[in-house]
Amino acid sequence: MTDAIPHDAEITVPHVSPRGRLMDAATRLFCKNGINATGIDAIVAEAGTAKTTLYKIFKSKSDLVEAVLEAEGKVWRNWFIASIEAAKTPRAKLDSIFPVLKKWFGEQGYYGCVFINAVGEHPKDETRLRALTMTHKAFVLGHIAGLARAAGAARPEALAHQIGLLMDGAIVAAMVTRDPGVADAAGMAAQALLDDACGRVTAKRSRRSALQGDAAALARETLSPVE
Questions:
Q1: What is the pLDDT of residue 202?
Q2: Which residues contact 119 (CB under 8 A, 6 or more apart)?
């Protein structure tokens, strides 16, 4: 008896199309093991589909790779942008970038950026995956540049590019070290860039609040027991 699934066998999973199962399986295996290390046999076995089904839907492994990258990119961008947009002001949204990334880095299934990994393991003259990667990066940096502009940066595109470099570095460092704390170091560097470009964020108290605080301190001192 064997756990292997014949290539011409089809396992029925309710409510999930063969395409969806192939995409889910390929995404998990590509992210965990790498694209080149993951063969078609492993994907169809994971998905519970026939090999002929894969080639009928995607034509080739390359087409499947592109479909996975496009889908993963969309999911990641939606998650990332929704997460930083939860903050109230443009500056607060920019400040939340690396705390948001730190949560991602701490997930058990964190394997780095699917785009960086894909470009890194393919020939450097490969153009299609690089184009998909640049489209993904342009979307993310465009959103960050919009926030930088709203926060008062004089050169929002340049600031977005600098933050993007810190993001890429933190993503790779977290994958290598398995330490989510690398996001803190990158966040400190980003904070300096943001303070320089948009102005330092300081806690301000009104004169009334300051006087109230001083009065409260005096009251505490007056009521302190005598030793």
A1: 63
A2: 126, 129, 130, 133
